[in-house]
Amino acid sequence: MDLVPALEEPLKQPLKSVLGPATAKVMAEHLGLHTVGDLLHHYPRRYEERGQLTHLADLPMDEHVTVVAQVADARLHSFASAKAPRGKGQRLEVTITDGSGRLQLVFFGNGVHKPHKELLPGTRAMFAGKVSVFNRRLQLAHPAYELLRSDSEEAVETWAGALIPLYPATAKLESWKIGKAVQTVLPSAQEALDPLPPALREGRGLLPLPEALLKIHRPHTKADVADARARLKWDEAFVLQIALARRRYADSQLSAVPRTPKPDGLLSAFDDRLPFTLTEGQRKVSREIFDDLATEHPMHRLLQGEVGSGKTMVALRAMLAVVDAGGQAVMLAPTEVLAQQHHRSVTEMMGELAEGGMLGGAEHATKVVLLTGSMGAPARRRALLDLATGEAGIVIGTHALIEDKVQFHDLGLVVVDEQHRFGVEQRDALRGKGKQPPHLLVMTATPIPRTVAMTVFGDLETSVLDQLPAGRSPIASHVVPAADKPHFLARAWERVREEVEGGHQAYVVCPRIGDDIDEAADPKKSGKKSPEDEAEKRPPLAVLDVADQLGGGPLKGLVVEVLHGRMHPDDKDAVMRRFTAGETDVLVATTVIEVGVNVPNATAMVIMDADRFGVSQLHQLRGRVGRGSAPGLCLLVTEMPEASPARQRLNAVASTLDGFELSRIDLEQRREGDVLGQAQSGARSSLRVLAVIEDEEVIAEARQEAAAVVAADPELTGLPGLRTALDALVDEEREQYLEKG
After folding, report:
1. What is the DSSP string of 12-33?
2. Rounded to whole angstroms, what are the CA distances from 238 to 41, 129, 206, 211, 705?
3. Which of 208, 170, 171 is nearest to 192 (CA)?
4. Is 432 exposed, middle or buried (0-12, 13-18, 19+ CB in 10 A)?
5. How far apart are CA 506 and CA 239, in angstroms?
């Protein structure tokens, strides 16, 4: 990597460290900062003004915070304890204020002496610690602090300028220590290579990079911060879009076999036997896909659609078009339950068209083959033979499809269902099985705001299905506060019983399976007993326990079965078949039912410990009910207190069925970094100042600029600074993730 030597210098070295070895070690282990460049790109989260105090009223629970405030009161108390039985124990209680609220600090034992001398009423300081609750009041126990003496030369030196930068910190390293470390390396910012082409930077009136780094870390005014952030946002958006534009360019250079369906082949035969008409959305998206399939370059399309919008139908028609054109199509599903479900529903929808080579098979029929890791040897051998000879036109399976021994006769289309469940290597290995690159259709039922689609899936064309097919029913969602109102939970089970008595079925979803192997069974013990802690520290409710309690209690007399990921695949399949056939009244399951499971007669869902799930996941789960003509009901059970962020999240889910709206809420709460798929790359987020929801305009403009730059110079030979930034900001692992997406 051709990085600037000054910025490439490690913070921690065997012979000499840029910082003290202990500080450098904590930065590497807890903040992922290894070089001078990493530290310069660790920007302040916010700034405090000397004359202005922070909002103590808005402190988040259980988070590590830094506040600037004034001591209002300090009292030393004596008490008796096991360690100090004669009343010799000491506790210092300090109250600090900022005008908006008050916060209590507590120090114990030998730790009281220094703060007792220093934290006198009227003193101003920065305090850092984890916010907890004691006796229903917020407090910081044993916070670290730094006095702000305006007359002290050191303070003036360290906190130069009118604004005090507050850095994302950890319990091991306070914000002001990070600030001091940044001051040490700040002179190196002069040597930072600018990634933006000069014409772009000057045309948009953006600061040079060294000046932006200086102003973000040592601003004198709010305008300095705004200018620096505007410049650094462009860096992040532009470098990311360059990575994606290079990927799109490379794809446009590949050749693929065009796949055009026959006028009166398998696809028309399938359309003729459909008992319903496709929605306008399904027809429009199908046209976009068929146009892509007919070209000589591989299709790379993202199909996103609301839960239940009929994505599987669109994907199946694309697969049939490819089979018509003489190729094979494969659908990759994240779980065996889902692969089996897809196989069942595809063969049912196709009828005799899925019976190629069999007696009674239709004229244009093909074979639909299932391949999963747990199949018996004879069935597996047959499936592999059908794939290799081309007998199987449509193949549905799990990651077992990716193994070396799986060979295709002529792979023309890969459909990836719920792409976020697959690692990069898995998708790439499957795409590598075609003689020429196959066309790729990626499906997701998690709606993605436009900016995220541009940021994460920027190398894919996007199609959106936002219409629900006719006959789908609305889903009513309610939060059930089990701790505040236990009778609400009792009523929830009565509602489940009423649905079953009306001829319907229900799901009960739990976060955990509930046997000895479960890691969650032994949560870290904690002495705190606030309501949040009580709900958080208790092990999540488990399928096996809940099923037993319901079967012997509120749902006694109903047929209750369990489904979870650790069951034998044959058992899972048998449970799903019984539930689909209506033989089971209530299915108590983990999130294995989250995606794709389609039982139109299931009308109610109770999600236990709903606060343990993410917003998008709850929306996905809820989409399993209301799939028939009867209205759906989803009950979100939680023990979290009314004012907690978890309850606000659940209220948001209950208040709207709009997945795009929920995905925005989800994204705002999860913080930006998750967007770039560290799950796939394991790497830190490269987004530090860019907010994918707020900065839509910057992202859209950066995408245009990046496309123009890459079209003119795909290898970036004339832009060494940009090549360097591509290596540094979008580290190798992430670029592979983007490339293979």
Report:
1. S-SS--SS-HHHHHHHHHHH--
2. 16, 36, 13, 18, 8
3. 208
4. exposed
5. 48
The closest alpha carbon to 637, from 669, 671, 611, belongs to 611
Scanning 92-193, the segments in alpha helix (DSSP H) are 113-118, 153-158, 175-185
* Angle subtended at Cα 465 by Cα 426 and Cα 438, rounded to the nearest 5 degrees: 35
Strand pairing class (586-589; 505-509):
parallel
Q: Which residues pair with 392 in a beta bridge?
A: 367
Structure tokens at 133: 């609750």
**Tokens matching residue 361:** 């098979």
Q: Which of 214, 217, 295 is nearest to 260 (CA)?
A: 295
Contact 563, 587 (CB under 8 A): yes
CA angle 170, 1, 682 (to 5 degrees): 40
Pairing relationship of beta strands 137-141 and 124-134 according to DSSP bridges: antiparallel
Count of CB atoms situated within 10 Å of the CB of 80: 11
pLDDT in the model for residue 669: 62
pLDDT attached to residue 738 = 46
Structure tokens that stand for 696 in this block: 């839509």
**At a CB cut-off of 8 Å and minimum separation 6, what does 277 contact?**
none
Low pLDDT (below 50) residues in the chain? 1-4, 15, 153-161, 517-533, 535, 671-685, 732-733, 735-741
Q: Where do we find the tokens 């949560």?
A: 523
pLDDT digits (tens, 9 = 90+) for 327-374: 999 999 888 888 888 898 899 889 888 887 655 556 778 999 999 888
**E strand spans, 388-467:** 392-397, 411-417, 439-444, 461-465
Closest C-alpha among 520, 728, 575 to residue 35: 728
**Kind plus residue range of the DSSP H or E element containing 492:** helix 486-501
Tell me the CA distances in angstroms from 485 to 403, 491, 642, one per residue in order: 52, 10, 11
Cα-Cα-Cα-Cα torsion 666, 667, 671, 677, nearest 10 degrees, comes to 110
Question: Hunting for tokens 């220590």 — which residue is that?
Answer: 177
**Phi and psi (nearest 5°) for 702?**
-65, -35
pLDDT value, residue 61: 73
Query: Which phi-psi region, left, alpha or beta, contains residue 429 (left: φ > 0; alpha: ψ -120 to 50)?
Result: alpha
Q: At 574, list the tokens.
A: 């048998």
